[in-house]
């Protein structure tokens, strides 16, 4: 078989997780001798009444039309660009990476977002193939769209270890004891549960929240902390650079991940990479990804989280066991393996003339 030309479409307005996925995957796929990778730059549009992803999809639609017939396959690295693309009008096969189904499983009052969800579902059905980042996400796709099970492949992404090179290894001490959360502060991340849990956690332990938030979200976090009497023990850092993040991971008592919905869950694996015990939500894709290498808690039960935090605080053997299991668990995920499985899908799509849904 001659080289396969793959056009990879993404947008600079994507979130950090999507941008990381795109960069790591394309860097690994580019090394494959039988793939000619074309990174397609897209123009970003800012349309106030539309969300950022729907605005981005307009620029990607224009790129697809420009490069159609110039590539063998298009690969859209996020499902969030699907709405408004008109995939059925594209001659070249389109593979779509689905990270989660939030637009389809969420309830909307806004009529524009309701329309967005309907278009989103239609375009998922029109994709030539769906690449899901977890088995949970695959089942979500099958349950919420008309896409058949045979049209969805599960390919696990990974995390980057390079950004932690040169970070601290010794000593692992800190002027204060804290548990750590890294990620978005949006409501689905369920930060309020951890904040409420803090009122039952021994007072030497603080909660450090790393990640971006707007003024409203930051104030909401402060309000939850004030209402639960833990204002002085909840620290918001905003975004931090990679060396600082590595330091925070490695010096933390434990990493907490209380999210209500995840299609994969990268931060807990980053914590494991940095030898930090993980306490994670027992719902959606997270147990699938972390296996037996974490303590799992009900995301709706703050006392459950408080008890797990106290247990790790008081039990050095448990901490060592979780660190050891975490070191083994992260070996299941590599970008090389992700690229190999993705390239195999590219080849199968080219060989299958009837790859589009009927």
UniProtKB/TrEMBL annotation:
**Locate the Glycosyltransferase subfamily 4-like N-terminal domain: which residues?**
53-159
Glycosyl transferase family domain location is 172-329
Q: Does the keyword Transferase apply?
A: yes
Is Transferase one of the keywords UniProt gives this record?
yes
Q: Which InterPro entries match?
A: Glyco_trans_1 (IPR001296), Glyco_trans_4-like_N (IPR028098)
Keywords attached to this Swiss-Prot or TrEMBL record, sorted alphabetically, are: Transferase
Recorded superkingdom = Archaea
As one GO molecular function, the record gives: glycosyltransferase activity
This protein is called what?
A: Glycosyl transferase group 1
